[in-house]
Design goal:
The structure is a single chain. By secondary structure, the chain is an alpha+beta fold. It is built from 13 helices and 38 strands. It has an eight-stranded mixed beta sheet, sandwiched between helices. The protein has a four-stranded antiparallel beta sheet with strand order 3-4-5-6. The protein has a four-stranded antiparallel beta sheet with strand order 7-8-9-10, with no helix packed on it. Strand 17 and strand 18 form a beta hairpin. It is globular and about 65 Å long. The two termini are 19 Å apart.
């Protein structure tokens, strides 16, 4: 059984209470811990030293407390870290991808934290190191590379970096002959740029003070940032903007979107003075995206009731909706996830019955075939090719027992060429592990897929501990792929399970639709049903289940802890979105307006407010026994602000009726993604796994 007496008894940090009341739609709420929200949060994201000393002192006290309660796991954390590090090929290198006269790839050096970008001659030869992330990030407490994109003529490269964790990226331009950076410097961007092959510059999106990418600029090389030309501006704070280039370098795609609606504008890259041209005006609930196929665009869309998407085509000279014709029909339950076009073939990734498939269609004959695998649960990744004329695409495959494999696939001959199998230096035998897919019955008659992996020697008599992961928002799907880190738990007798709950698109778009807004509680009840099914089938017991989720999955953790605390032996909530109502009421926060389509708008809708209030984890903490809780956060996180878990932890300690500890670990030098660098991140994973092992009595080194 979970035994919290394994934690030393120490007084938890005391949280001052300064009640702040808010009345909406005739309902008054009182927030005792609103003071933890820094009034200058925008400034803190860019300069953490400006944080209010009282708030900093409280967060440091939380770190000291969790450190003391986890002190006896230091040796275990070190062992876990070394195990996980030992499963990584430290001097690993990607298989270079051919583009014109060169092939481009990434690599790591032994002991290196960050990727390096290199190129070779197209058909092999000596590597030229274009950018060394370790060198650029040297002596920085936090450093994250954005994208690194070479120009179409292969003479230059745009690269970006964030050195605060707040996701405000600075862009630089590097000469690929001299490997020196030009004086060009563009700040406060989304992290990357798109070259114009027909001019001397690039496009990028700038992030505003509220951390929303809402304006597209064109930067002419050699000119100061102040002279950059504004190309397009998104006025709706609920829409974000992205930019991309076509495969033939003829068009620039400007994509404005929220979570359910999109709108695309085209720029003719061959005319530097061209103005954006609208493809199809936004309609609420209609999404579409374009890829270029020579004289046509292929359009992936859910228009006209195609909930699981279809593919249309239209002439590039007349992209308006009245000219769209169907190429791949909509089929309910078969979700089309992404598409690409090449000279002779159309390619798309789809998912049906929770399993992915890559489909290939000959553009001339219309003949189709699939790339598929036979395991019960697996993951496919479609990388495609940077070259339009290619008949070879690249894809990856893995399962929870099978390390990642990278293939080249000839779409004409249908030959697969295995390029690389993920190397596990310390050794891995897939036959030592078993992966399965279960179907957990939900209360309303639906069945929830649950992917599991466990060691062949693990006894399935209910005694095994289980780490049960869930997310269930934004239509995101957690693929049952291979993880070297998880082996440290599985080898110690853990069952690892992924609950493919509503709110994701695992079973089509309807699976997402039935887990958002006024159906959000399905996400939580599906997760609880998954836990109960694992127990009913004899895999584990409730006090041996440690639930884990991050970001919106952290909200899931807070909700199920309130709704069914008896179903879990522990809760791990990483960067948890738990203060749902307060965040959705604050339209100055980076993600609030774009999130209203996902959660509802409590400012304007009494119905949305009332429903949100019925599940918001922070607002629904009440006097009951809770399992042990670990919350993890980052100070400069622009997605889930640090004060959400800080407030939640304080309220849990105030109201819960048990003696189980509530720990809060906050990285004072990082944001949403945690520590930067592959090994620093592993140290954080080792900490979380040590916590899970400690809960179930397996913390012995």
């Amino acid at each position: 059984m979970t035994n919290t007496s394994r934690f030393v008894t120490l007084p938890a940090p005391q949280s001052a209470k300064h009640p702040v009341s808010d009345t909406r739609h005739g309902i008054t709420r009182v927030d005792d811990y609103a003071w933890m929200r820094a009034e200058n949060w925008q400034e803190v994201f860019k300069d953490p030293s400006t944080l209010d000393p009282a708030i900093r002192s409280h967060l440091e006290a939380e770190n000291a407390y969790q450190s003391a309660l986890m002190a006896d796991t230091k040796a275990l954390q070190s062992k876990l870290f070394e195990e996980m590090k030992g499963r990584i090929k430290e001097d690993d290198s990607s298989v270079p991808s051919k583009d014109g006269p060169y092939a481009y790839g990434t690599s790591y050096k032994t002991g290196g934290q960050h990727p390096r970008f290199f190129r070779t001659p197209r058909d092999g030869g000596e590597q030229t190191m274009l950018l060394d992330g370790d060198l650029e990030g040297d002596d920085k407490a936090y450093f994250s590379l954005g994208s690194a994109d070479h120009s179409p003529d292969h003479s230059k490269m745009i690269w970006g970096f964030d050195d605060k964790g707040s996701e405000f990226y600075t862009l630089k331009v590097r000469d690929l002959t001299t490997l020196a950076d030009a004086d060009d410097l563009v700040s406060d961007t989304s992290g990357g740029g798109v070259w114009n092959a027909h001019s001397n510059g690039f496009y990028y999106t700038r992030v505003d003070a509220n951390h929303r990418p809402s304006r597209l600029f064109y930067h002419e090389l050699g000119q100061p940032e102040s002279t950059d030309r504004l190309i397009h501006e998104e006025k709706d704070p609920g829409f974000f903007m992205g930019v991309g280039g076509s495969s033939l370098d003829d068009f620039i795609f400007i994509d404005c979107h929220d979570h359910e609606t999109s709108e695309v504008w085209l720029l003719d890259a061959r005319n530097a003075a061209s103005e954006p041209k609208l493809v199809a005006a936004r309609q609420t609930g209609v999404e579409y995206s374009l890829t270029e196929g020579g004289d046509v665009f292929y359009i992936l869309t859910n228009a006209d009731g195609a909930k699981d998407f279809k593919i249309m085509s239209t002439p590039v000279t007349a992209p308006e909706p009245e000219n769209w014709t169907e190429v791949v029909a909509h089929k309910a339950g078969r979700l089309l996830l992404g598409h690409g076009a090449y000279k002779d073939h159309l390619v798309w990734l789809e998912r049906e019955n929770s399993l992915p498939r890559i489909m290939i269609r000959n553009r001339h004959s219309g003949e189709e075939h699939a790339i598929a695998f036979d395991e019960e649960a697996f993951s496919l990744g479609l990388q495609g090719s940077p070259e339009y004329d290619s008949e070879i695409i690249r894809f990856s495959y893995s399962s929870m027992t099978t390390p990642s494999q990278l293939y080249d696939y000839n779409m004409r001959t249908r030959e697969r060429t295995l390029l690389k199998t993920q190397e596990v230096p310390s050794g891995h035998n897939p036959d030592d592990y078993i992966t399965r897919r279960l179907l957990a019955p939900a209360a309303d008659g639906e069945t929830v897929p649950v992917s599991i992996v466990y060691h062949r020697d693990t006894k399935l008599d209910g005694s095994a501990p289980c780490l049960l992961y869930g997310y269930g928002s934004y239509g995101a799907t957690r693929a049952p792929s291979f993880s070297t880190s998880l082996l440290s738990l599985v080898d110690r007798g853990f069952i690892y399970a992924i609950a493919h709950i509503r709110g994701g698109k695992d079973k089509g778009y309807a699976w997402y639709d039935n887990g958002k807004r006024l159906h959000k509680k399905n996400t939580f009840t599906d997760f609880i049903a998954s836990a109960r099914h694992l127990v009913a089938e004899g895999f584990t017991s409730h006090d041996r289940i440690v639930a884990q989720g991050g970001s919106a999955g952290g909200m899931l953790m807070g909700a199920v802890a309130n709704m069914a605390p008896e179903a879990f032996g522990g809760i791990i909530a990483e960067v948890p979105f738990v203060d749902v109502i307060n965040t959705m009421l604050d339209d100055t926060l980076p993600l609030t307006p774009p999130e209203w389509t996902e959660w509802g708008n409590p400012i304007t809708s009494p119905t949305d407010y009332a429903y949100m209030a019925s599940y918001s984890p922070y607002d629904n903490v009440h006097a009951q026994a809770y399992p042990p809780v670990l919350a993890v956060a980052g100070l400069t996180d622009p997605r889930v602000t640090y004060w959400e878990p800080a407030k939640w932890v304080a309220k849990l300690r105030e109201l819960k009726t048990d003696d189980n500890p509530v720990l809060f670990r906050i990285n004072m030098d990082a944001g949403h993604a945690g520590a930067s660098g592959r090994f620093s991140r592993l140290e954080e994973v080792a900490y979380v796994y040590a916590y899970a092992l400690k809960l179930v009595g397996k913390a012995a080194v």
